[in-house]
Amino acid sequence: MLSKGFLKGYANVFNLIRKIGDLALVLASGFASYYFSNAYELFSDDGSGALPEHYLLVMLLVVILTALLFPLFGVYRVWRGSSTLSEIRCLALAWLSVAMLLTALAFITKSGSEYSRSWIGLWFISGWSVLVLSRIVLRLALRWLRSNGFNHRHIVIVGAGEQAAVVSDRLQQSAWFGLEILALFDVKGQPVPEQLNDKTVIKDYSELLYYVSSRGVDQVWIALPHSEEETIRRVIETLDGVPVEIRYVPDVFEYQLMHHSLTEMAGIPVVNISYSAIDGANRVVKAMEDYVLASLLLVLASPAMLLIAIGVKLSSPGPILYRQTRVGWNGKEFTMLKFRTMPVDVEKETGPVWAKAGEKRATPFGQFLRKTSLDELPQLFNVLMGEMSLIGPRPERPVFVEKYKDEIPHYNKKHLVKAGLTGWAQVHGWRGNTCLHTRIEHDLYYIENWSLWLDIKIIIMTIFRGLIHKNAY
Fold it and tell me: Which of 17, 18, 52, 419 has the fewest CB atoms nearer than 10 Å to its CB?
Protein backbone atom coordinates (compact mmCIF):
# COMPACT_ATOMS: atom_id res chain seq x y z
CA MET A 1 0.00 0.00 0.00
CA LEU A 2 1.39 3.39 -0.99
CA SER A 3 2.25 5.84 1.76
CA LYS A 4 0.23 8.99 2.26
CA GLY A 5 3.32 11.11 1.67
CA PHE A 6 3.76 9.53 -1.74
CA LEU A 7 0.06 9.98 -2.56
CA LYS A 8 0.17 13.62 -1.50
CA GLY A 9 3.22 14.22 -3.67
CA TYR A 10 1.54 12.42 -6.56
CA ALA A 11 -1.57 14.58 -6.13
CA ASN A 12 0.51 17.77 -6.16
CA VAL A 13 2.30 16.73 -9.35
CA PHE A 14 -0.98 15.74 -10.98
CA ASN A 15 -2.49 19.11 -10.05
CA LEU A 16 0.52 20.95 -11.49
CA ILE A 17 0.18 18.99 -14.73
CA ARG A 18 -3.52 19.93 -14.90
CA LYS A 19 -2.71 23.62 -14.49
CA ILE A 20 0.06 23.59 -17.10
CA GLY A 21 -2.18 21.59 -19.43
CA ASP A 22 -4.98 24.16 -19.15
CA LEU A 23 -2.61 27.04 -19.92
CA ALA A 24 -1.24 25.13 -22.91
CA LEU A 25 -4.77 24.47 -24.22
CA VAL A 26 -5.69 28.15 -23.81
CA LEU A 27 -2.60 29.22 -25.75
CA ALA A 28 -3.04 26.57 -28.44
CA SER A 29 -6.70 27.48 -29.00
CA GLY A 30 -5.70 31.16 -29.21
CA PHE A 31 -3.11 30.50 -31.91
CA ALA A 32 -5.39 28.09 -33.81
CA SER A 33 -8.29 30.56 -33.70
CA TYR A 34 -6.12 33.36 -35.03
CA TYR A 35 -4.80 31.35 -37.97
CA PHE A 36 -8.27 29.94 -38.73
CA SER A 37 -10.05 33.31 -38.61
CA ASN A 38 -7.34 34.97 -40.72
CA ALA A 39 -6.55 32.07 -43.05
CA TYR A 40 -7.14 34.01 -46.27
CA GLU A 41 -4.90 36.94 -45.36
CA LEU A 42 -2.17 34.78 -43.87
CA PHE A 43 -1.80 32.52 -46.87
CA SER A 44 -2.13 35.21 -49.51
CA ASP A 45 0.94 36.58 -51.27
CA ASP A 46 1.22 39.51 -48.87
CA GLY A 47 0.61 37.56 -45.67
CA SER A 48 3.57 36.99 -43.42
CA GLY A 49 1.85 34.43 -41.19
CA ALA A 50 3.23 36.02 -38.03
CA LEU A 51 1.04 36.78 -35.04
CA PRO A 52 1.03 40.57 -34.33
CA GLU A 53 2.80 41.62 -31.15
CA HIS A 54 -0.29 43.22 -29.57
CA TYR A 55 -2.16 39.94 -30.13
CA LEU A 56 0.60 38.09 -28.27
CA LEU A 57 0.19 40.49 -25.35
CA VAL A 58 -3.54 39.70 -25.14
CA MET A 59 -2.82 35.98 -25.21
CA LEU A 60 -0.30 36.42 -22.39
CA LEU A 61 -2.88 38.40 -20.42
CA VAL A 62 -5.51 35.65 -20.83
CA VAL A 63 -3.00 33.03 -19.70
CA ILE A 64 -2.23 35.09 -16.58
CA LEU A 65 -5.95 35.59 -15.85
CA THR A 66 -6.55 31.87 -16.30
CA ALA A 67 -3.72 31.00 -13.93
CA LEU A 68 -5.10 33.40 -11.30
CA LEU A 69 -8.86 32.87 -11.58
CA PHE A 70 -9.16 29.11 -12.14
CA PRO A 71 -7.80 28.20 -8.66
CA LEU A 72 -10.05 30.85 -7.07
CA PHE A 73 -13.12 29.18 -8.60
CA GLY A 74 -12.05 25.76 -7.32
CA VAL A 75 -11.32 24.35 -10.78
CA TYR A 76 -8.40 22.32 -9.43
CA ARG A 77 -10.04 20.95 -6.32
CA VAL A 78 -10.50 17.20 -5.95
CA TRP A 79 -13.49 16.21 -8.11
CA ARG A 80 -13.52 12.54 -7.13
CA GLY A 81 -17.13 11.55 -6.47
CA SER A 82 -18.57 14.73 -8.03
CA SER A 83 -20.58 14.72 -11.25
CA THR A 84 -19.09 15.76 -14.58
CA LEU A 85 -21.72 18.50 -14.88
CA SER A 86 -20.64 19.99 -11.56
CA GLU A 87 -17.05 20.23 -12.75
CA ILE A 88 -18.06 21.66 -16.14
CA ARG A 89 -20.30 24.23 -14.44
CA CYS A 90 -17.40 25.36 -12.26
CA LEU A 91 -15.12 25.51 -15.30
CA ALA A 92 -17.74 27.53 -17.21
CA LEU A 93 -17.95 30.15 -14.46
CA ALA A 94 -14.16 30.46 -14.31
CA TRP A 95 -13.75 30.76 -18.10
CA LEU A 96 -16.65 33.21 -18.32
CA SER A 97 -14.99 35.33 -15.63
CA VAL A 98 -11.78 35.43 -17.70
CA ALA A 99 -13.78 36.55 -20.75
CA MET A 100 -15.70 39.22 -18.80
CA LEU A 101 -12.55 40.59 -17.18
CA LEU A 102 -10.80 40.76 -20.55
CA THR A 103 -13.83 42.57 -22.02
CA ALA A 104 -13.83 45.04 -19.13
CA LEU A 105 -10.12 45.75 -19.62
CA ALA A 106 -10.65 46.31 -23.35
CA PHE A 107 -13.47 48.75 -22.56
CA ILE A 108 -11.43 50.66 -19.96
CA THR A 109 -8.36 50.95 -22.20
CA LYS A 110 -10.48 51.58 -25.34
CA SER A 111 -8.40 49.00 -27.19
CA GLY A 112 -11.15 46.67 -28.37
CA SER A 113 -11.15 48.02 -31.92
CA GLU A 114 -7.55 46.91 -32.37
CA TYR A 115 -8.47 43.23 -32.29
CA SER A 116 -10.53 40.97 -34.52
CA ARG A 117 -13.88 40.18 -32.91
CA SER A 118 -14.10 36.94 -34.86
CA TRP A 119 -10.74 35.88 -33.40
CA ILE A 120 -11.78 36.71 -29.83
CA GLY A 121 -15.14 34.97 -30.22
CA LEU A 122 -13.67 31.88 -31.86
CA TRP A 123 -10.92 31.75 -29.25
CA PHE A 124 -13.28 31.72 -26.30
CA ILE A 125 -15.58 29.17 -27.89
CA SER A 126 -12.74 26.86 -28.93
CA GLY A 127 -10.92 27.41 -25.64
CA TRP A 128 -14.03 26.48 -23.69
CA SER A 129 -14.54 23.42 -25.91
CA VAL A 130 -11.03 22.02 -25.53
CA LEU A 131 -11.04 22.64 -21.76
CA VAL A 132 -14.30 20.72 -21.39
CA LEU A 133 -13.07 17.97 -23.72
CA SER A 134 -9.90 17.61 -21.64
CA ARG A 135 -12.02 17.08 -18.50
CA ILE A 136 -14.14 14.43 -20.19
CA VAL A 137 -11.09 12.59 -21.52
CA LEU A 138 -9.40 12.77 -18.10
CA ARG A 139 -12.50 11.44 -16.35
CA LEU A 140 -12.79 8.56 -18.81
CA ALA A 141 -9.11 7.71 -18.28
CA LEU A 142 -9.47 7.85 -14.48
CA ARG A 143 -12.65 5.77 -14.64
CA TRP A 144 -10.80 3.10 -16.59
CA LEU A 145 -7.86 3.18 -14.19
CA ARG A 146 -10.05 3.03 -11.09
CA SER A 147 -12.24 0.28 -12.52
CA ASN A 148 -9.07 -1.73 -13.04
CA GLY A 149 -7.77 -1.25 -9.51
CA PHE A 150 -5.57 1.84 -9.91
CA ASN A 151 -5.77 5.24 -8.19
CA HIS A 152 -7.94 3.98 -5.33
CA ARG A 153 -8.72 5.64 -2.00
CA HIS A 154 -9.14 3.30 0.97
CA ILE A 155 -11.99 3.97 3.35
CA VAL A 156 -13.38 2.62 6.60
CA ILE A 157 -17.06 2.85 7.44
CA VAL A 158 -18.12 3.33 11.04
CA GLY A 159 -21.46 1.56 11.28
CA ALA A 160 -22.63 -1.80 10.02
CA GLY A 161 -26.41 -1.36 9.81
CA GLU A 162 -28.81 -0.72 6.95
CA GLN A 163 -27.43 2.77 6.40
CA ALA A 164 -23.90 1.40 5.99
CA ALA A 165 -25.24 -1.32 3.68
CA VAL A 166 -26.73 1.32 1.38
CA VAL A 167 -23.43 3.24 1.34
CA SER A 168 -21.50 0.06 0.57
CA ASP A 169 -23.86 -0.88 -2.24
CA ARG A 170 -23.69 2.58 -3.84
CA LEU A 171 -19.89 2.60 -3.76
CA GLN A 172 -19.73 -0.91 -5.19
CA GLN A 173 -21.97 0.15 -8.08
CA SER A 174 -19.75 3.20 -8.69
CA ALA A 175 -16.37 1.52 -8.94
CA TRP A 176 -15.06 4.34 -11.14
CA PHE A 177 -14.97 6.61 -8.07
CA GLY A 178 -12.05 4.50 -6.87
CA LEU A 179 -13.27 4.26 -3.27
CA GLU A 180 -12.37 0.88 -1.78
CA ILE A 181 -13.91 -0.24 1.52
CA LEU A 182 -11.31 -1.91 3.75
CA ALA A 183 -13.55 -2.62 6.72
CA LEU A 184 -16.70 -1.67 8.60
CA PHE A 185 -16.83 -1.13 12.37
CA ASP A 186 -19.97 -2.30 14.15
CA VAL A 187 -20.64 0.04 17.10
CA LYS A 188 -24.17 -1.12 17.96
CA GLY A 189 -23.74 -4.89 18.24
CA GLN A 190 -26.77 -5.67 16.06
CA PRO A 191 -27.13 -8.31 13.33
CA VAL A 192 -25.24 -7.31 10.19
CA PRO A 193 -27.35 -7.01 7.00
CA GLU A 194 -26.85 -9.75 4.38
CA GLN A 195 -25.52 -7.17 1.87
CA LEU A 196 -22.39 -6.88 4.06
CA ASN A 197 -21.61 -10.59 4.31
CA ASP A 198 -18.72 -10.24 1.86
CA LYS A 199 -17.20 -7.32 3.77
CA THR A 200 -14.79 -7.26 6.70
CA VAL A 201 -16.86 -6.27 9.74
CA ILE A 202 -14.94 -5.58 12.94
CA LYS A 203 -17.01 -5.87 16.09
CA ASP A 204 -14.45 -4.32 18.47
CA TYR A 205 -14.85 -0.54 18.13
CA SER A 206 -11.77 0.07 20.31
CA GLU A 207 -9.57 -1.12 17.40
CA LEU A 208 -10.67 1.77 15.18
CA LEU A 209 -7.78 4.13 16.00
CA TYR A 210 -5.09 1.47 15.56
CA TYR A 211 -6.67 0.16 12.34
CA VAL A 212 -6.90 3.62 10.74
CA SER A 213 -3.37 4.54 11.79
CA SER A 214 -1.71 1.31 10.64
CA ARG A 215 -3.57 0.40 7.44
CA GLY A 216 -3.07 3.57 5.39
CA VAL A 217 -6.75 4.55 5.52
CA ASP A 218 -7.52 7.70 3.51
CA GLN A 219 -11.07 8.39 4.66
CA VAL A 220 -13.42 7.39 7.46
CA TRP A 221 -17.12 7.52 6.67
CA ILE A 222 -19.53 7.64 9.58
CA ALA A 223 -22.79 5.92 8.58
CA LEU A 224 -24.84 6.10 11.77
CA PRO A 225 -28.37 7.42 12.38
CA HIS A 226 -28.90 10.83 13.92
CA SER A 227 -29.87 9.23 17.22
CA GLU A 228 -26.27 8.04 17.68
CA GLU A 229 -25.04 11.59 18.27
CA GLU A 230 -22.85 10.63 21.22
CA THR A 231 -21.16 7.81 19.29
CA ILE A 232 -20.56 10.10 16.31
CA ARG A 233 -18.91 12.68 18.56
CA ARG A 234 -16.77 9.98 20.17
CA VAL A 235 -15.57 8.72 16.77
CA ILE A 236 -14.56 12.24 15.71
CA GLU A 237 -12.69 12.81 18.98
CA THR A 238 -10.94 9.44 18.71
CA LEU A 239 -9.60 10.24 15.23
CA ASP A 240 -8.72 13.85 16.06
CA GLY A 241 -4.97 13.25 15.97
CA VAL A 242 -4.95 11.08 12.84
CA PRO A 243 -4.35 12.69 9.41
CA VAL A 244 -7.41 11.15 7.81
CA GLU A 245 -10.47 12.66 6.11
CA ILE A 246 -13.68 12.15 8.08
CA ARG A 247 -17.04 12.26 6.31
CA TYR A 248 -20.51 11.94 7.79
CA VAL A 249 -23.24 10.30 5.71
CA PRO A 250 -26.58 11.85 6.79
CA ASP A 251 -29.29 9.33 7.49
CA VAL A 252 -31.44 10.52 4.58
CA PHE A 253 -32.00 7.12 2.98
CA GLU A 254 -34.95 6.35 5.25
CA TYR A 255 -36.84 9.39 4.01
CA GLN A 256 -38.45 9.92 0.62
CA LEU A 257 -36.80 13.25 0.03
CA MET A 258 -37.17 15.12 -3.21
CA HIS A 259 -33.67 16.54 -3.16
CA HIS A 260 -30.93 16.46 -0.60
CA SER A 261 -27.60 18.19 -0.90
CA LEU A 262 -25.26 20.05 1.40
CA THR A 263 -24.75 23.75 0.89
CA GLU A 264 -23.89 26.84 2.90
CA MET A 265 -26.02 29.90 3.59
CA ALA A 266 -24.73 32.87 5.60
CA GLY A 267 -21.85 30.70 6.76
CA ILE A 268 -24.24 28.01 8.07
CA PRO A 269 -24.04 24.47 6.60
CA VAL A 270 -27.53 23.30 5.64
CA VAL A 271 -28.97 20.18 4.03
CA ASN A 272 -31.37 20.95 1.20
CA ILE A 273 -34.44 18.70 1.47
CA SER A 274 -37.04 20.28 -0.78
CA TYR A 275 -35.08 22.34 -3.25
CA SER A 276 -34.99 23.33 -6.92
CA ALA A 277 -31.69 23.42 -8.82
CA ILE A 278 -33.14 26.33 -10.86
CA ASP A 279 -32.28 29.04 -8.36
CA GLY A 280 -29.93 32.00 -8.06
CA ALA A 281 -27.66 32.33 -11.08
CA ASN A 282 -29.27 29.25 -12.64
CA ARG A 283 -32.61 31.05 -12.73
CA VAL A 284 -31.03 33.89 -14.72
CA VAL A 285 -29.49 31.40 -17.18
CA LYS A 286 -32.83 29.62 -17.51
CA ALA A 287 -34.68 32.90 -18.16
CA MET A 288 -32.16 33.97 -20.82
CA GLU A 289 -32.53 30.57 -22.48
CA ASP A 290 -36.33 30.91 -22.50
CA TYR A 291 -36.50 34.44 -23.91
CA VAL A 292 -33.84 33.91 -26.59
CA LEU A 293 -35.07 30.52 -27.83
CA ALA A 294 -38.78 31.40 -27.57
CA SER A 295 -38.23 34.57 -29.63
CA LEU A 296 -36.28 32.63 -32.25
CA LEU A 297 -38.84 29.82 -32.41
CA LEU A 298 -41.70 32.30 -32.68
CA VAL A 299 -40.08 33.95 -35.69
CA LEU A 300 -39.38 30.60 -37.36
CA ALA A 301 -42.83 29.19 -36.59
CA SER A 302 -44.87 32.28 -37.50
CA PRO A 303 -45.66 31.15 -41.10
CA ALA A 304 -46.85 27.75 -39.85
CA MET A 305 -48.85 29.40 -37.05
CA LEU A 306 -50.60 31.63 -39.57
CA LEU A 307 -51.61 28.59 -41.66
CA ILE A 308 -52.76 26.74 -38.53
CA ALA A 309 -54.86 29.75 -37.46
CA ILE A 310 -56.60 29.73 -40.86
CA GLY A 311 -57.15 25.97 -40.58
CA VAL A 312 -58.69 26.27 -37.10
CA LYS A 313 -61.02 29.04 -38.27
CA LEU A 314 -62.19 27.01 -41.28
CA SER A 315 -62.56 23.72 -39.37
CA SER A 316 -65.27 24.87 -36.94
CA PRO A 317 -66.89 28.10 -35.72
CA GLY A 318 -65.32 29.80 -32.74
CA PRO A 319 -62.11 31.53 -31.67
CA ILE A 320 -58.71 30.47 -33.00
CA LEU A 321 -57.08 30.26 -29.57
CA TYR A 322 -58.25 28.17 -26.66
CA ARG A 323 -57.60 29.74 -23.26
CA GLN A 324 -57.44 27.53 -20.21
CA THR A 325 -56.50 28.20 -16.59
CA ARG A 326 -53.50 26.18 -15.47
CA VAL A 327 -51.35 26.04 -12.32
CA GLY A 328 -47.72 27.08 -12.70
CA TRP A 329 -44.75 28.31 -10.70
CA ASN A 330 -45.33 28.56 -6.92
CA GLY A 331 -48.88 27.28 -7.44
CA LYS A 332 -50.02 30.49 -9.17
CA GLU A 333 -52.72 30.22 -11.82
CA PHE A 334 -52.23 31.59 -15.34
CA THR A 335 -54.04 31.46 -18.67
CA MET A 336 -52.40 28.99 -21.01
CA LEU A 337 -52.84 29.45 -24.77
CA LYS A 338 -53.38 26.70 -27.33
CA PHE A 339 -54.80 26.45 -30.81
CA ARG A 340 -58.42 25.36 -30.41
CA THR A 341 -58.80 21.70 -31.37
CA MET A 342 -62.38 21.05 -30.18
CA PRO A 343 -65.78 22.61 -30.89
CA VAL A 344 -66.75 25.43 -28.53
CA ASP A 345 -68.33 24.37 -25.18
CA VAL A 346 -67.51 20.70 -25.74
CA GLU A 347 -66.96 20.26 -21.97
CA LYS A 348 -70.09 22.12 -20.97
CA GLU A 349 -71.90 18.94 -19.95
CA THR A 350 -68.99 16.64 -19.01
CA GLY A 351 -66.86 19.18 -17.17
CA PRO A 352 -63.03 18.94 -17.17
CA VAL A 353 -61.87 15.47 -18.25
CA TRP A 354 -58.53 13.94 -19.20
CA ALA A 355 -57.83 13.59 -22.91
CA LYS A 356 -57.68 9.88 -23.78
CA ALA A 357 -57.08 7.68 -26.80
CA GLY A 358 -60.03 7.03 -29.10
CA GLU A 359 -62.12 10.02 -27.97
CA LYS A 360 -64.08 11.90 -30.64
CA ARG A 361 -64.24 15.38 -29.09
CA ALA A 362 -61.63 17.02 -31.33
CA THR A 363 -62.31 18.15 -34.88
CA PRO A 364 -60.43 16.26 -37.67
CA PHE A 365 -58.04 19.22 -38.04
CA GLY A 366 -57.78 19.41 -34.25
CA GLN A 367 -56.82 15.73 -34.08
CA PHE A 368 -53.98 16.43 -36.51
CA LEU A 369 -52.79 19.37 -34.37
CA ARG A 370 -52.86 17.25 -31.21
CA LYS A 371 -51.08 14.31 -32.81
CA THR A 372 -48.26 16.57 -33.99
CA SER A 373 -48.29 18.77 -30.84
CA LEU A 374 -48.70 21.85 -33.08
CA ASP A 375 -51.61 23.01 -30.94
CA GLU A 376 -49.04 23.91 -28.25
CA LEU A 377 -47.23 26.57 -30.35
CA PRO A 378 -49.13 29.59 -28.91
CA GLN A 379 -47.55 28.78 -25.54
CA LEU A 380 -44.43 30.48 -26.87
CA PHE A 381 -46.28 33.69 -25.97
CA ASN A 382 -46.73 32.33 -22.43
CA VAL A 383 -42.96 31.85 -22.29
CA LEU A 384 -42.27 35.41 -23.44
CA MET A 385 -44.74 36.70 -20.84
CA GLY A 386 -42.76 34.88 -18.15
CA GLU A 387 -45.63 32.54 -17.25
CA MET A 388 -44.04 29.38 -18.63
CA SER A 389 -40.67 27.98 -19.64
CA LEU A 390 -39.72 26.12 -22.81
CA ILE A 391 -38.82 23.10 -20.71
CA GLY A 392 -40.36 22.01 -17.43
CA PRO A 393 -43.21 19.96 -15.98
CA ARG A 394 -46.42 20.25 -17.97
CA PRO A 395 -48.99 22.49 -16.19
CA GLU A 396 -52.31 21.07 -15.08
CA ARG A 397 -55.77 22.50 -14.46
CA PRO A 398 -56.60 23.58 -10.88
CA VAL A 399 -59.29 20.91 -10.49
CA PHE A 400 -56.78 18.15 -11.19
CA VAL A 401 -54.11 19.74 -9.00
CA GLU A 402 -56.56 19.70 -6.08
CA LYS A 403 -57.41 16.10 -6.85
CA TYR A 404 -53.89 14.73 -7.13
CA LYS A 405 -51.88 16.82 -4.66
CA ASP A 406 -52.86 14.47 -1.81
CA GLU A 407 -52.98 11.27 -3.88
CA ILE A 408 -49.61 11.47 -5.64
CA PRO A 409 -46.50 11.78 -3.40
CA HIS A 410 -44.63 15.06 -3.95
CA TYR A 411 -47.12 16.14 -6.66
CA ASN A 412 -46.96 19.82 -5.69
CA LYS A 413 -43.15 19.82 -5.86
CA LYS A 414 -43.52 20.18 -9.65
CA HIS A 415 -44.62 23.77 -8.99
CA LEU A 416 -41.19 24.73 -7.66
CA VAL A 417 -40.31 25.66 -11.26
CA LYS A 418 -42.15 27.17 -14.20
CA ALA A 419 -44.27 24.83 -16.26
CA GLY A 420 -42.93 23.97 -19.71
CA LEU A 421 -44.00 23.25 -23.28
CA THR A 422 -42.05 20.02 -23.13
CA GLY A 423 -40.21 18.21 -20.41
CA TRP A 424 -38.25 15.19 -19.22
CA ALA A 425 -41.45 13.19 -18.73
CA GLN A 426 -42.85 14.07 -22.15
CA VAL A 427 -39.76 13.04 -24.13
CA HIS A 428 -39.90 9.67 -22.35
CA GLY A 429 -43.51 9.15 -23.43
CA TRP A 430 -45.18 10.02 -20.11
CA ARG A 431 -47.86 12.30 -21.50
CA GLY A 432 -51.60 12.11 -22.03
CA ASN A 433 -53.45 9.46 -20.03
CA THR A 434 -50.36 7.70 -18.63
CA CYS A 435 -49.12 6.84 -15.13
CA LEU A 436 -49.07 10.00 -13.03
CA HIS A 437 -46.69 8.52 -10.46
CA THR A 438 -44.02 7.87 -13.09
CA ARG A 439 -44.63 11.24 -14.71
CA ILE A 440 -44.08 13.05 -11.40
CA GLU A 441 -40.91 11.02 -10.79
CA HIS A 442 -39.56 12.28 -14.12
CA ASP A 443 -40.60 15.86 -13.33
CA LEU A 444 -38.84 15.75 -9.97
CA TYR A 445 -35.71 14.28 -11.56
CA TYR A 446 -35.63 17.28 -13.91
CA ILE A 447 -36.08 19.76 -11.05
CA GLU A 448 -33.33 18.11 -9.00
CA ASN A 449 -30.84 17.71 -11.82
CA TRP A 450 -31.49 20.77 -14.00
CA SER A 451 -28.65 22.05 -16.12
CA LEU A 452 -28.35 23.88 -19.41
CA TRP A 453 -27.02 20.66 -20.93
CA LEU A 454 -30.08 18.72 -19.76
CA ASP A 455 -32.34 21.32 -21.42
CA ILE A 456 -30.40 20.98 -24.67
CA LYS A 457 -30.78 17.20 -24.46
CA ILE A 458 -34.55 17.52 -23.94
CA ILE A 459 -34.86 19.91 -26.89
CA ILE A 460 -33.07 17.40 -29.14
CA MET A 461 -35.18 14.53 -27.82
CA THR A 462 -38.35 16.58 -28.35
CA ILE A 463 -37.49 17.11 -32.02
CA PHE A 464 -36.94 13.40 -32.65
CA ARG A 465 -39.45 11.72 -30.34
CA GLY A 466 -41.58 14.30 -28.51
CA LEU A 467 -43.57 16.09 -31.24
CA ILE A 468 -45.31 13.01 -32.63
CA HIS A 469 -46.02 10.29 -30.08
CA LYS A 470 -48.57 7.52 -29.60
CA ASN A 471 -49.67 9.13 -26.31
CA ALA A 472 -50.38 12.51 -27.97
CA TYR A 473 -54.14 12.75 -28.45
Answer: 17
In terms of Cβ atoms closer than 10 Å to its own Cβ (0-12, 13-18, 19+), residue 23 is middle
The sign of the dihedral angle between the CA atoms of 188, 192, 197, 203 is positive
Distance between CA atoms of 121 and 60, rounded to whole angstroms?
17
pLDDT recorded at residue 354: 53
For the chain, list the domains and their CATH numbers: 4-147 (no CATH), 153-254 (3.40.50.20), 281-466 (no CATH)
| CA distances in angstroms from 200 to 158, 172, 196, 219, 468, listed in the order given | 12, 14, 8, 16, 54
Eight-class DSSP state of 375: G
> Does 43 have pLDDT greater than 60?
no
Cα–Cα nearest to 111, from 55, 184, 188, 35:
55
Distance CA 264, CA 272 (A): 10
CA dihedral 184, 190, 194, 199 (to 10 degrees): 20
Residue 444 has pLDDT above 50, yes or no: yes
- Side-chain half-sphere exposure of 389, counting CA atoms within 13 A: 28
User: pTM for this one?
Assistant: 0.50
Q: Where would I find the beta strands (DSSP E) of 191-308?
A: 201-202, 219-222, 245-248, 261-265, 268-272
The answer to whether the beta carbons of residues 122 and 65 sit under 8 Å apart is no
Percent of the chain with pLDDT over 70: 79
Average pLDDT score over residue span 89-115: 82
**DSSP string of 293-358, one letter each residue:** HHHHHHHHHHHHHHHHHHHHHHHSSS-SEEEEEEE-GGG-EEEEEEE--S-TTTTTTT-S----TT
For 53, half-sphere exposure in the C-beta direction (CA atoms, 13 angstrom radius) is 0
Q: What is the mean pLDDT of residues 135-143?
A: 80
Sort 388 into a burial class: Cβ within 10 Å, 0-12 / 13-18 / 19+. Answer: buried
Among the listed ranges 57-61, 166-170, 295-299, 369-373, which one has the minimum average pLDDT value? 166-170
Q: What are the Cα distances from residue 196, in Å, to 81, 164, 166, 167, 173?
A: 22, 9, 10, 11, 14
Q: How far apart are the first and last CA of the chain?
A: 62
Across the range 172-196, mean pLDDT stands at 75
Residues 158 and 223: beta-carbon distance below 8 Å: yes
Higher pLDDT, 282 or 339: 339
State residue 30 phi and psi, 5-degree precision.
-65, -45
Is residue 149 over pLDDT 60? no
- The Cα angle at residue 375 between residues 371 and 377, in degrees rounded to 5: 125
What is the C-alpha separation between 464 and 295, in angstroms, rounded?
21
**What is the pLDDT at residue 151?**
57
